[in-house]
Structures are given as C-alpha cells and as structure tokens.
Amino acid sequence: MTASLSGSERPLAEAHDLALVDLDGVAYQGRLPIAHAADSLAEARQRGLRLLFVTNNASREPEEVASRLTGLDIPTEPDEVMTAAQACANLLRTRLEPGAKVLVVGGKGLETAVAEAGYQVVSSADDGPDAVAQGFSPELAWPDLAEAAYAVAGGAWHVASNRDLSLPTERGFAPGNGALVAAVVAATGIQPDSAGKPEPTMYRMAVERHGARRPLVIGDRLDTDLAGARAGGYPGLHVLTGVSSARDAVLAEPGLRPDYLGADLRALLEPHPAPSEADDGWWRCGERSARVVDGALELDGQGPSGIDVVRAACAAAWSAVDGGAALEPDGVPELTA
C-alpha cells in the first residue's frame, strides 16, 4: 500500500463540505487556545465548510465540549460535537441487546452515552456486567481499574473508547486512556475492542449524520487522527500544532500518512500545491525541494523551515521508501513549518 500527498488548487475550506476536526492539539491545547485556530475556523465556516468536532476524549459530554470551544472564541453547538463515548456506545450495539449490563469505567460523558444507548450502567464486577466500557477520566483510580480487570477476567467484553497512550495538556503530555487500558490488559491478558480513532467508526458516524459528500479529517496525531482517515478512506489534513511533528510525517508508514500538510488551521484557507518529481531526482513543492540519497534525506540549501520543504521532504521520503529504498531515521533532520 502506498499513500502520497495530494494537491488542491482550491482552498480546502472550499473543496470540502464537512471538516471532522480533532480537539486537543488542533482546536486547543489543554485549556489554552492554539494560534490562528479560532479565526481560521470562523473563516472556513464563512466559506461554507461545516464543522464537526470529533474527539477521542470520552470523559466530557458534548455540551461541555461545546462550551469550552465557545469560550475559546470557536462558537459551537452540542450537536456539532462527536465524542469517543458516543462511538463506544455505538460499538456496544453491535453485540449487546438493550438492557444489558455495562460496567462504565470513565467520566460522565461515557456514562451518559452508554445509558442513552439503552444499557443498564453498573459500578461493580459483582453486578455481573456483560461488558466493560472504559474511557478516560482524570479522576480514575486503582479501584476503578481493578473493577474493570475483575469483570473482564470474569468474561465481560472489554470495549475501550480509544487507546491513545498520551494526552496533550497545557503542561505537556500526560498518560491517556490507552495507558489506563494497558493496565487492565496487563492484569487480564485480554485485548479490548476500540471504538475511537484510529478506528474509523466516529468518522463514518459523522459523515452519515451530515450526509457529507466531500469530508475532510483534520488532526495532529498520525497514529490516531490520520490513521483513522486512511482506514475510513477519507482525505486527511495533518496540522503541526500538536503531537506528531513534521519529521514524524516524513517517516510515516503508508497507513499513517496524511493527504495534506499545514502548519496550523490556516491551511484550510489556502490551496495546497502537490509535490512533483523532477528529472534530477529532486522532489519539488513550490520553491523548495528534497531528495533521498544513500538512506538520508537531503534538502535544498534554504534550510529546514517552511511548509513547502516539509511537503517536498514527505514526497521524496515516501517515494523512496515505497520504491524499496532505505531511509534511515537518523538521516532525517528536524523540520519546522
């Protein structure tokens, strides 16, 4: 499987009808705003792009997420938010009948989503749950994880809202739901099913809800946001304001690669030139170029900064690797947009 950068002569906000926008690392960083996010999303709306905020965080309810976004000058209604809690409840429906018992290990958002799906929420493994729904909550403690382990070991179906190992906050990266799920897996030896990204469940739910014909996924994590886009067959925009760096994009395997790259959400308002290969082996994008020689990435003489050099570097690296050439991680410098 290969996956290459795409080009768009029109700004992405005009070429697509629905943007599936990640939250942490894209719209905000913890409780702090991200530069250009609010203004760019407002302008994208004015150009006709509908927004749906799609998050792997299952701890908060859509109303709370909408309130936070609105407080950061991104006016949002609750029905413009889709959480991993809702996807988790949807996954439960594939195996459980309404009225089944579900042990919820997570925040209020997950508890509400499971209850609204018609399941009986229980709080102990002793209640004989049919499933364990596990999502992130900063208040989770050892007794909660122990109840989950007891239930899963007893035969309950383990469903995780997502398996993100880390969670970006205003102070840095903290353990995410995947780290807490791993504790239950370590105790039971049983791997859970997952509803959140990189599974494309939420994206498909969102596209169906809005009847979108030209959806665009926007995220900062290659291993969740963009992997989910690839898995679902949706074009993805990787913005460099969160977890995955420009260098990560250069080194990404095909299933994690974005279709578009942008420094931040201003990328929605701009055309995206497609890199092209020249006869001399260089890949060019705009005025910048890159190539792979003897397992190392070479850049033009203009330095490692600028979104076009990142695009050229991705195109050169992906083409080389997909063609069977070696690319050593140590041979890829740090790049900035």
TrEMBL record:
InterPro entries associated with the record: GNAT-like, HAD-like_sf, HAD-SF_hydro_IIA, HAD_sf
Signal peptide interval: none
GO MF entries: hydrolase activity
Keyword terms: Hydrolase
Domain of life: Bacteria
Domain GCN5-related N-acetyltransferase-like: 285-330
PANTHER family: 4-NITROPHENYLPHOSPHATASE-RELATED (PTHR19288), D-GLYCEROL 3-PHOSPHATE PHOSPHATASE (PTHR19288:SF95)
Name this protein carries in UniProt: HAD superfamily hydrolase (TIGR01450 family)
